[in-house]
Design goal:
alpha/beta; Rossmann fold; 8-stranded mixed β-sheet; about 50% helix
């Protein structure tokens, strides 16, 4: 990107995603007009940690005038209201790009700005950001989905310096499917981890152990899936067809954690279905899980 034509960027929202975008842009020497964060405690944390000169608690029309790209990084439920307020603050939006980072909301929530000729889009990072911006991967290592105005990808590539080989252009339904997949990959894994901890909490020898004990197992499983595919990475009693082991598991859950039995059955049957077992073995495993 020609330094003389680098865009000025305004970020609204200093949470996990907004602050992480700011950190990436700042260390890559892209000019940031402001990072606006209304939470005093969050603003104090960012200021103390980074001492960025562009931190502000309130948005002003002057910030909008000076910005070529506006990134809205607020809660999903607040994006539409933020767009409405922005449209009221400034009349002329022509040649400006406005993007939000939500995975579930379409670019249509920015319609008040689109009506004023802003180029609008949703740019969703396929990533789980830490609350500490400097602990995240660089944005150029991430994948994104992009949904919005025709030609928006060329504009972002030119004016934001995105690596477009990592940007997947989608329509809204495709974007929503990706976001649901993210929930299964990331959020629901957290639930499985919590269930695992519940199973172990009353086992005295393991009372002092946490997820770190299982880190090698988790990371090796993930690495195997990436290297060999999901089916070929399957291990454990269900994928081996160990029917007696499954019965032992179910008896233990019945006695100690009956609330987790249905989860074990549901996930176990799905695992059996995608395994490399014969059809007869799959049938017997599923029958055993239903017993």
């Amino acid at each position: 990107m020609n330094p003389e034509h680098r865009p000025s960027i305004l970020i609204i929202g200093g949470g996990r995603a907004g602050a992480s975008f700011a950190h990436h842009l700042y260390i890559n020497d892209l000019p940031i007009i402001s990072l606006v964060e209304t939470s005093s405690s969050r603003l104090k944390y960012i200021r103390n940690k980074f001492n960025w000169p562009f931190l502000h608690k309130q948005l002003t029309p002057d910030m909008l005038d000076k910005s070529d790209i506006i990134i809205i990084a607020v809660r999903d439920d607040d994006i539409a209201e933020e767009a409405r307020k922005l449209a009221e603050l400034k009349k002329n939006w022509k040649n400006k790009i406005v993007i939000h980072l939500s995975g579930a909301s379409s670019s249509s929530v920015l319609q008040p700005l689109q009506k004023k000729e802003a180029m609008t889009a949703s740019l969703h990072p396929i990533y789980s950001f830490s609350s500490k911006p400097d602990e995240n991967l660089s944005l150029d290592q991430l994948w994104f989905t992009l949904e919005g105005a025709p030609g928006i990808s060329d504009a972002l590539a030119t004016r934001l310096g995105l690596d477009m080989s990592r940007v997947i252009e989608v329509d809204y339904m495709q974007k929503l499917a990706v976001h649901i997949a993210c929930v299964f990959y990331a959020n629901f894994f957290s639930v499985l981890a919590d269930m695992s901890q519940e199973i172990l909490q009353n086992i005295p020898p393991l009372s002092g152990h946490n997820i770190n004990t299982f880190k090698p197992l988790i990371l090796s499983t993930l690495d195997n899936m990436i290297q060999n595919g999901i089916k070929n990475a399957l291990t454990g009693p269900i994928s081996r067809g160990d029917k007696e082991t499954i019965l032992h598991h179910l008896h233990f859950l019945d006695e100690h954690h009956p609330n987790l039995r249905k989860a074990y059955q549901f996930l176990g049957k799905r695992l059996a279905e995608i395994s490399n077992l014969s059809q007869e073995d799959k049938k017997q495993i599923i029958e055993r899980l239903d017993s």
